[in-house]
Amino acid sequence: MRRAAWNELRQLPDQDAAKRFKGARWALLKRPENLTEDQSATLRKLRRRGGDVWRAYSLKEAFRAIFAGDLDTEDAATLLERWCSKASRSRLPSFVRVAKTIRKHREGILAAIRLGVNNARAEGLNNHVRLITRRAYGFHSAQAALALVMLSCGPITLRLPHEPIPR
């Protein structure tokens, strides 16, 4: 939504408006508690202006609050359904599409909330391996890069949160 609004501003005769709005990206992406003073001021200006960008930001923050980790499954299910309803009525095509997808995969999402399962460990491992393979550029064989991955990551055992710790 931010990019679409920025492109609309670029079409206007006042090019300074697009330049001023371009700085809003990080204010919209960061958590509200981590904003600098300038970013907070930018966010206040966006709230006063309203429109699609502010509606999208509000929906994003409401969605983030559902997955903060302090809700049980029933409360999360209720809030998720309310969020989907609000997103469907928002007239923002990307959020309408996300709401449909969430409704389609609702049971799996609620199971992940109930079990506390996410893909953070696998994503962290993937990023670590990507970093190692970038560092290994120029090795003569894939086995050397694989040896570096195994040396750095060690034997990898992923344990799900609901599985007991082996003794």
Arithmetic mean pLDDT: 82
Number of helices: 10
Could you estimate the helical fraction of the residues in percent? over 70%
User: What is the percentage of strand-forming residues?
Assistant: under 5%
Order of helices and strands: HHHHHHHHHH
Low-pLDDT regions: none
Beta strand count: 0
Q: Please tell me how large the radius of gyration is.
A: 22 Å
Structural class: mainly alpha
Describe this entry's structure for a reader.
α1 runs antiparallel to α2 and α6 packs antiparallel against α7. The protein is built from ten helices and no strands. The N and C termini lie far apart (50 Å). It is an all-alpha fold and 167 residues long. It is extended and about 60 Å long. Among the domains are: 49 residues, no CATH class; 34 residues, no CATH class.
Write the layout of secondary structure elements.
Blueprint: H1 2-11, H2 15-22, H3 24-29, H4 37-49, H5 51-66, H6 73-88, H7 93-104, H8 106-115, H9 120-135, H10 142-153
Question: Which key terms come to mind for this protein?
Answer:
167 residues; mainly alpha
Sum this structure up briefly.
The chain is mainly alpha-helical. The chain has helices at residues 2-11, 15-22, 24-29, 37-49, 51-66, 73-88, 93-104, 106-115, 120-135, 142-153.
